[in-house]
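Support request from a user on the community tier.

User writes: "When I paste my structure tokens into the form, the page sometimes reloads and wipes my input. The last time it worked, I copied everything first. Here is what I submitted, just in case something in the input itself triggers the reload:"
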């Protein structure tokens, strides 16, 4: 049986945890039979608040030791919680092929979204290009949060399109208003 996996990538403080919290607080994300395993591969400033989740069948596991990133460990966590779907909040400093090699048989990535701080993304691209390419290359959408009018949207667009021609690009301002790229 296939296990759907929702993969959220991005660097520290990019907004991954906030998005996961909002997703798990939305009753429309759940069916009665859903048991969700959340795998967090880094500890950021924000923490998930299970008291706000729309279901009590959500289990959080934090793995900050890369040596535990293997199919046996991940499958054991799925069995431990009897989860039938997985959300992964992945460490932005770890390469995605390491995760893909560790995914147990039967796990299928349903969606991959990258989150980026619009105020620091150009700097990350200049200084850690290989990590940016690793995260942007396979994502279906990139969400630039903390966007404001002082940021050059065309520069962000060009970096993303130079790596991934098919992903959607969204710009979210500090008030939560989202605008999709139409360049």
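"...and here is what came back when it finally went through:"
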């Amino acid at each position: 049986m296939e296990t759907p996996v929702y993969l959220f990538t991005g660097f520290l403080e990019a907004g991954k945890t906030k998005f996961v919290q909002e997703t798990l607080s939305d009753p429309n994300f759940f069916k009665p039979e859903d048991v969700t395993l959340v795998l967090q591969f880094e500890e950021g400033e924000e923490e998930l608040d299970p008291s706000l989740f729309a279901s009590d069948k959500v289990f959080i596991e934090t793995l900050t030791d890369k040596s535990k990133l293997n199919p046996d460990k991940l499958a054991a966590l799925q069995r431990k919680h009897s989860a039938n779907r997985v959300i992964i909040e992945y460490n932005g400093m770890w390469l995605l092929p390491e995760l893909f090699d560790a995914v147990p048989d039967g796990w299928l990535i349903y969606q991959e979204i990258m989150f980026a701080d619009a105020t620091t993304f150009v700097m990350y691209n200049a200084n850690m290009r290989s990590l940016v390419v690793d995260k942007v290359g396979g994502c279906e959408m990139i969400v630039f949060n903390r966007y404001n009018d002082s940021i050059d949207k065309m520069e962000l667009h060009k970096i993303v399109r130079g790596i991934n021609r098919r992903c959607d690009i969204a710009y979210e301002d500090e008030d939560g208003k989202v605008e999709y790229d139409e360049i």
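Agent notes: The reload is a front-end session timeout and is unrelated to the input. The mean pLDDT is 95. The chain has six helices and eight strands. Escalated to web team.
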